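Per reviewer request, we include the raw input and output of the structure prediction for the construct analysed in the revised manuscript.
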Amino acid sequence: MLAALLAACSAAPAHAPQISAPQTCSGETREETQIEPGVTWIHFCREVPANPNAAPAAGMPLGAPAGPWSIHILEFPRHRREIELRSRVGLNGAGKFTRVPVTELASRAAAEGEDVIAAINGDYDMADPYLGLPIGLAVSDGKLWSGGGPPRPAMTVVGSGTPAIGVPEFTMRLDVRNNFLTVDTFNKPMAYSEAHHLRAYTRAFGSEVKAARPFRALVLAHLGSDLPPQSRGVIRARVSEIRAASDVQPIPVDGILIAEFPEGPNPKEDVFRDVKIRERVNFDTWIRMENSGDVQQAIGGLPLLVSGGAVSISGEGEPGAYLKARHPRTAVCYTEDDYIFAVVDGRQPKLSVGMTLEEIADFMLSLGCVEAMNADGGGSTELAVALPANAARPSTLPPAAGSRLTIVNSPSDGLERGRPNAWLIVQNK
C-alpha cells in the first residue's frame, strides 16, 4: 500500500552545526533510495490545499493556507533477523539523563560495534530543570531507565521481536518480608504523579531528589544485580540507610533511593514503620504490553494516532490547541510486514507547512498502519540515514563522527536539537 500511495505522488545543543537542507518543495515529486536491501528511504513533495480546520501555528486562528508538504518515509521489514529496531537513551558522562543529538546517539552505538543505518527522534522530554528526562516509558535492550506515573502510550518491541503500540503495564514494587509495597514511578520528578505510593531513583535521574515538602527516604545498597534494572526482574538488596524527612534527598551512587510521597505515608504502605537497617528486600519490576510479553525496547509518545486500523487520537494529556496546529511531526507505526517511520517537515513555508495531528493520523492510516503513535515533533523532528556512496546528499552537514548517518530532513530550528532518546535501526552482519 505504501508503494502504491507514493507512486501516485510521482504524477539540539547550542553548539550543534547548522543544517543546510533543501529549502523548497513544490509540485508532486518522489525520490526513493535503498539504504540497504529492504530498507528504503522515500522523500516526496506534495501540494496540500488550505485547511479551514487547521491553524498555521499554535495559538493562531483556524484557517491554514495552502502550501507544500515535505515528507520522509523510512520503511524496513519486521521479520528479518539481520535488521533490528533498538532504542537508545541520552546520558552525559556521569550517566545522567541529558539531551543528546540523535546522530550522537547513533555514533555512541557505532562506537560499541553496532552498525547503525538510520536514526529517528523519540520521546518528548520534561521541562527545565529536567531537560533530557523522557516523559514516557524508556526501555533499552531490556533495561528500564524511566517509567511509571499516569498511563501514557509507547511504541514497544517485546522479547520475540514483536512490535506493539499502546499503554504498557508498569509494575514496580518493594518486597519487605512478603509485604509488597507499590512503587509508582521510576526516575521521575516527585510531582510527576499524584499517586500516594513510593518513588524510586537511581543516579540516571541526577545526584539528588527534591520536593516542595519534606519526604522520607531509604537507600537500597549491596545490590545483587547491575543497574539499571531489567524490564522484568528482581534486584535483591539490603537497606543501608533510613533517612529522616527532608525536601532534598541525595541519590546513592551505586544504589536505589526509595522516596516516600511528600504528603505523608499511606498507612497500608509505611515501609519506614518497621524496616530495619541491613534488612534484605527485593525490588521487583515488570514492564509488559498486554498479551505481547515482556518489553525489551520502548520509547513513549503522545498521542495515539491510529488504533485497530482506524484514526483514534487519544492518550493521557492529549494536547488541545496543538491538535489543530500545523507543525513538524514524527510518527511511527507497523504493518503486518514492515515498520514505517514518517517525518514531516514544517514551519518552513516554502519547504513544508507541517501537519496537524488529524492530518498525520489520516496520513499514517493511508500508509496501511493498524496502530500508529505520534512522537516528539517541532524542532525535534529528525531522520538520519546511512546514504549509499552514490546518493545525492540532501544536507551539507557531514556525517556524525563515528557514524555514517546524514540528516535528510530539514529540522525547523536550523540545527540538530538534543533529544532524550532515539530509535536506531541496526544491521547485524
